[in-house]
Structure formats: C-alpha cells, structure tokens
C-alpha cells in the first residue's frame, strides 16, 4: 500500500517552517511513493516567480536519507505574499539517478507550502503532486511555478483542499461531505495519484509523458508538469491515461472505469447552512466569491421557504470570510444578478424568488437592487434601491466606468445606474416587442451593453449612454439566457432552447414542468457568437456538451465556458483566438469532449459559470435535479480546479488575463 502526503491550508494559509532564530527557518519532512520512502531524492525549496515567465528562485537544497527524510534551512522572507513550494527530484524507482535521455529527472514530487509561516512535517508524494499540479495548472510551465497575486497565492491555498501534507491523506475538504463519497472526485484524485506511481516505479514515465502532452506542444519531461498538462486539457487521452493505473492499488478509493475527462470538481458550501439556490457569483479583487441566493436555507426540500435575505461571501478555498454572510440592504430572493463595481461595491438584483407556500407578496419585494461595501456593509436602504422602474431584475453588471446595468426580466427594459448613483437611475425600454424577458446583460470593449431577450429570441445592443441601437435576431438565438463579452469585441450568447425565463407571468413551477421530461440535448440548445457589428454566423455552435445552456463566461484566453441547467455538464468552446485552442480547432468547436462536455456527479441544475483569478471554474448548483417547488434550491457551488485561463477581477465587462 502506497501512502500519501500533502500541506494543509485555509485562507489565508500558512507555509514556511519553524525558526531556529537569527532570521533562519527550518523545513523538514519526508519524500514517499505511497508508503515507500524515496532515498537520495534532491529536495529543493523554491519561491515561485511573481509574474508569468519569471523563474522560481531556489532558496535551499538537500537530499533525502535512506528513510526519505530531509531537513533544510533558509533565510526568512521579507515578502509575506511570496509563495513557497517543495520539489523532490528522483530517477525511476527513486534511485536518484537521471535517465540518460533526460537532463531533468523524470520523477518530480511536489508540495505547495503557500504563504506565511507554518510548523510541522511536510510530506511529498503522488497525492501532493496531483494536488499541486491541478491547483497550479495555470501557473506552471516547464516545471516551474510563477504568476501574479492574488491568483497564485489563492491557487496554492486551494491545493490544500485536495491533499494534506501533514498526514498523507486526502484533505478534509475532498474526503468528507459534501464531497467524499458523495461524488467521484476523490476517486478520480486517487486514480491520478496511482497513475503517477507507475512512473515513480520506473515503468511508465515515457508513456505518461506522451499521453499528457498537448497536441503540437513538447511533451512534459517530469511528473509534476505532466499533471499540470493533464489538468489544462483533461479530455485528451483520458482512457489511455486511465489504463496506466491498471494493477496499481496505492491509493483508495479509486475509479473503476475511465472518466470522460480528468477534471477535479469540488463542492463548496460555506458554513453549510447558507447556500440555497445560489444564482450567480462575482469575484472581488482578492478573489473572494460573492454569491446571491434564491431561497432561505433549509435542507428539507419539502419545507416551504421564502426568499433569501443574505449575501454569501466565500474565500477562494470555499469557507466563509469572517463576518459573512451579510444581511440588510433590501436583499430578497436574489437570482442571476450579482456584480462588483470598480470601487469594490457589491450589487445584487432582488428578483424575489420564493418557494410555493411562502406567505409574503413577492410583488412588493422584487423591485430593487441592493448595494454593499467591500466589507459587507449595506449601503442601500431596507427596501433596496428602487429608482429606475426595476421589475423582477435578473442579470446585473458594472462597466469599467462604474455604471450599473440591470436586466428587468419582468419589465421589458434595462435600468442604467450612472456612476453607481441610484438617484440618477434611468429606465430604458426599447420600442415594440424587441426586448421581452431581458435576462442576461454584459458590456463589451466599447462600453456598450448587450441584453438577452429570452421571450423575444433576441439580443438588444445599447450605447454606453443607454440608447437602444439595434435588436439582433437570427444566428440560432433561441430563448437566450446568459451573455458574456470577449476581449476582441464579440459577445457570446447561451441559447437555453427550452428554458423560459421565470418572469412576466411565467413561474418557476412552469419552468420545472417545461424541462422535466428533457433527457437528451434539446434541438435548440446552442451558443451564438455576435460580432461587434451585430452580425452572427449563419448557424449557432452545437455539441452535446450543451444541455439547456444557461450561464456563459469567457476566460483569460478568450475561450468560452457554458453552464447547463441539465445534463450535469460544463462545456468549453474555442473562441476567436485560435492560438489558445488545441491545434485544428476553430471558433465554436468544443474543447471539452463533444459527446459529453466535462461531466461531474457533483453538478445538479446549474445557472451561473464564472472564472476566478486562479483559473478555477465556478458553477452554481441552483436547483436540485428534481426541484420540489416548496424549496427547489441546490446547496453548493461546484468548482473545477485549475481548468481555465485566470481572469483579473472584479470582472468589468470583457475579461482581462491576470
């Protein structure tokens, strides 16, 4: 039986070592392959580079003894945000000899220490390496770690949600509910660690590197980079990689069949009694996640609930920020609308969601937006900001100038709040039936706003000052829901197909009835790209990763991510920048497996998808698979680790690479 080892973390997290005084720190631990010590491995303590392309800086180096143990000393750092990590390089079977064909030893085991100081033993093994490789996938090139904060330091902390270097077991976050035995992520994680043991034993390194390598790119030369490459393109050679675990039983429990892709998705629940129907998520400058909820938390779906009056805020590792969740400011039944402006103020759109049987009159509560300071203090009054004829608001975004745009799903209009000043709010209602059930809203590179019309099969383009410019139809736009801008001026539309927005006379119960019998991809489920001039390709983009598309986001490489209200899957499409896609793919082609998308049994019915500064992809488990209308809400955010190109936050219109 091969054991496992990792570094524990929270937010903010610790890394470093005990101090003997005089500005010198000591780090000590052990290197193992499973339960077997790795002798004569070269152990290096490194400080990660502080920007892309900056080399990691070695701080100390030593070798393990016959029992795999090591101890090294290094000078105390002056930068508290510097990210430290340990590598252990060895030849096959841990003999400490490089292969003749490699200048780099093929076995590299890694443990992320993170920032700050910590005490206690550190263990490096296959589990810690998988944890580090996935969490740092977007910051690892050529086997070295480098990147900007907060993404880099947050990613180091997230690695400790997967593995715990103090005891060699899977981390508590991964090993226990709502993860653990409730999803397949723990089994996938252990299977990946088993795959590495074949290389550690000197048997499968060449095959592993060939399979992990990306098309058109050099193959990785050591195990840590191989894991990072797998994490960034997890659907590539998934079955062949699974075969490398045959006959290996170091880590349990593990998968019994090959996955469609090697993704690791964690469920986050904050304090465990707050998320109920999370609708959307917005990230602040430090990467903490602000989340509006549809319903008051109740674990029993048969108990009738009213609209949520809290705003959740999670650390990058999924715990509550101290003091959160927040209350007041008129919050009630927030839906798809949560955003952050350039001043760090958080805005939530009060749609008025509530379960059947709630005695409150939602019609008196769904006419406002709420505003909070960056530390969670409400700025809006107890009834919320009500200027601008807000009615059943759904999508809400801030542009870079601080103007707030609100899609009034029940009002056939958009409300613009100039400079975030509610007293100047103005309602914009395009003529005729050109904007029915506006749902999603985004801002492009020119500061123009685009709003989807779920009931009019259209997208409305507005000038930066709010003047309606044109209504876009065609190109496959059908029941559009979410919309997102890329950095090249295009916007991307998620066509729900069969999803009717629950406003203007349509109730959530009607939505549930309309989708209950849809068990395969609906004919109109698709994504449409709208060019800056308002034109579209003749046909929308379609693949079986799209199943009742709802939320949509664009990452730092301009690839497109789609959350689905059905099918338990996440889709990733090639954007306009073909250089960011695997060779041979063109705009709209699926990067995720075309037949399935990136599936996860941790997903339920998802509305939002957003990318954080570490490249993690967050989805909202908004409804349960079988949504009893007394309380249909799901209770988790689901986070795919290290899967996308990081985005600078807060997101103010088009994405910017971190």
UniProtKB/TrEMBL annotation:
Gene3D superfamilies, alphabetized: TolB, C-terminal domain (2.120.10.30)
Protein name, per record: SMP-30/Gluconolactonase/LRE-like region domain-containing protein
